[in-house]
Write a structure and sequence with these properties.
Helix content: 25-40%
Strand order of the largest sheet: 1-6-2-3-4-5
Radius of gyration: 17 Å
Number of helices: 6
Distance between the termini: 51 Å
Length: 213
Amino acid sequence: MKQHQGQPEIATRDESRDIAVLAPGDHIYTARRGGSYSHHGIYVGDDMVIHLQPPRQSYAKSSKKISSCSVECKKCGYKPDCDTEIIKTCLDCFLDGGSLCLYEYGVSDFRNKPSGSCSPSTASRTGDEVVMVAHNLLETGSFGGYNFASNNCEDFAVFCKTGMGLSMQALEGFQAAASFLGAEDEIGGLALYGAAKAIHAGINMIRKQTTLN
């Protein structure tokens, strides 16, 4: 595991073959589209990761290796052109050729920190609890559908660790939008992000009620 000043802890896939660098319940992530955003998941042991997948069409565009018709992974059975929402895959399929990074919690100073690499939240759950929550959400599908602005893979992983969904990369996007619109970026970004979260929660509630009826 390597760590550079001002950079997240990074292990190349070859180095991380020794899974001793990871513990079940770790929040991990890897860069997508040259670092423009990151994909997040929960390491659950035995070289496996549970993560929330974007819709098929958007994920296919971001992947380095996936074509419109892909072959099932011999290790975990993952089929990139078919499997969406919350899924469990091997670490290789999760990384998709990218570097393995560990997410940081309890960070108060975000200067020199890559977007989507850390959170001010405290990881309050034990590793075993995190793994249990991730498996429960995988089995029940109760976390809700993927939405980059309000319910993305970082939200999912942070929820598993803390009990509250939070995506710093989405929040930073809203702060940039607020600044562009002439509002104070921190306050305006929080307002926009909160509104997006509320709308998504309302849509999920309507969908659940429709399903029950």
